[in-house]
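DATA SHEET
Item: assembly model
Revision: 1
Owner: S.N.
Input lines:
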Amino acid sequence: MKNSLRALREGHGWTQGALADQLDVSRQTVNALETGRYDPSLPLAFRISGLFGRPIEAIFDPEG
Amino acid sequence: MTSELDSSGASRGDRARTHAYLNDFLPGIVGYLAVLTLVVLFGNLDGTSPLRFLWAVLPVIPTLWCLRAVARHIGRIDDFQQRLLLQGLAVGFGVAMITAVTVGFLGIAGLDMRLAGWIIFAAGMLAWILGAAVSAKR
C-alpha cells in the first residue's frame, strides 16, 4: 500500500528512529512502512494518523 | 532517494528492547555455561552411576530461562518484527523437522546416530538465523 509517511516524517524533520520511538515500533518497521513492504495494523495506523493529525485515508492509499 | 534524515542506526526504543532482551537472555547462557562446567568436572557421564543421567540433563534447566527471555522479547516487539521472527522460526522449525526425519531414517538404516540431537539442533538453529536474515532483507 502506498503512503505518504516518508514525506510527512521529513516534513517534521524527524529521522526514522525518532518516528519509530514516537510510534513505539522499531526503526526497521518504519522503514518497511515507508517502502510499502509492510501495511500497518489498525492500531498502528491510528497511532500514525493521530501523530500527524491526518485521517488514515489521507496517509495511506489503498489503491496504491 | 536518501536524505540526512535516513539513518540505518537503531532507535532509542530499539536499543532499549535489545538491552532488555540481552538482560533477560544472559542469565540463561551464563547459567548454562556454569552448570555445563560443573557437569564436565563432576558429572562423570562416562561412569556407571544412575545419577549420571541426572547430571546429563542438568544444563537444560538454565536454558529454560532463555525460553522465557524469547517469550518476553516477542511481547516487547511490534507486529512487523513479530512477523519477521515468525518467518525465521518457521524456516528453522521446518528444517529441524526435515533433519529429524532424515536422521531418523538414517538411524533405521543402521548409521550411528548418537549425535542426532546435536545435528537437529544445529540445523534448526542455523536455518532460523538464515531465515530471519533473509526475511529482514526482503
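QC remark: Residues 12-42 of chain B form the longest helix (31 residues).
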